[in-house]
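Title: Prediction job returns without error message
Component: structure pipeline
Severity: low
Priority: P3
Assignee: unassigned

Description:
Job completed but the reporter wants confirmation the result is attached to the right record. Sequence as submitted:
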Amino acid sequence: MTAEKKKLPFHLGMRTVKSALAVGLALFAGYAIKSEYPPFLAIGALGAMQASITESLRETRDLMLGNLVGALLAMAFTAYSPGHPALSAGIGVAVMIVVCNSLHMAPSTTSLACVVFCCCLTDLLSSGNPFYGLLRFRDTVIGTLIALAVNMLIRPYSGAPHTRSDIKKAQQAMLPLLEQRVLRGRIPDLHDLRARINDLDRSVTTLLDERMNKSLTKAQVAHLRGCQQLLWKMRDALIGICCIDSMPRPSEENLARMQALGLTPGDGQPDILDGVCLPEDAVVFNYYLKVFLDANDYLTQLIEL
């Protein structure tokens, strides 16, 4: 009798491990170069660690640019301060956000650039070193480069198997929802389903955007996108079925196909398939039901290729 593996009460993914390693290496580098403020290296490392190499490269570029702007702006505000440091910080953050938005930076990158600006501003005022901002910019650059190297060299992200598994799970999760609506007369809550499919969309988009990971082929990613689009079709058909406020009867063909999937009416509801409705409701209902079942069949075949 084999012992079952105990699952951890938390998820320790590769990105978490690589983030911790990158921060550790960045701080070690900070102490090695005798940086006056090593946390700036950690800030750079955390900001540059993304799901894919392409995202890390983009984030590294934006962080370098944003932090350079923040350091230079802090130096300028120190030399030509409009008043109290709190007032300078408020005005400077507004300027930083406007500049970062004009450069089309992500909100997370903009926030980190503003953090660098505020830290440089307050520390410049206390240290009196006019080059303090450039030293902090140097630290963040080192941190981002370390994170980029870690992300590229240690098991680069390849989310294809995980995405394939999530597509299968979402497909299976839709079948009980269809059963509830069509065979049991209930209106299921589709909120969790929509959230799951939105997460899948982000995962596939990340894979499509990846340009540096040679383990991902274009054909592999295109296959996953096709599977995801069939999943969208199933979701849209299910939404269409749930929007019908009467209880039409499934056609004999659709009913047989549902029963082949193991979907049957609930006990104590023998008359649920005999609901009275308008003829056009039955037409629309069975149209969406057929679309759902066809997409489900295609997806079952495609996902296994």
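Comment from assignee: result matches the submitted record. Residues 1-5 have pLDDT under 50 and may be disordered.
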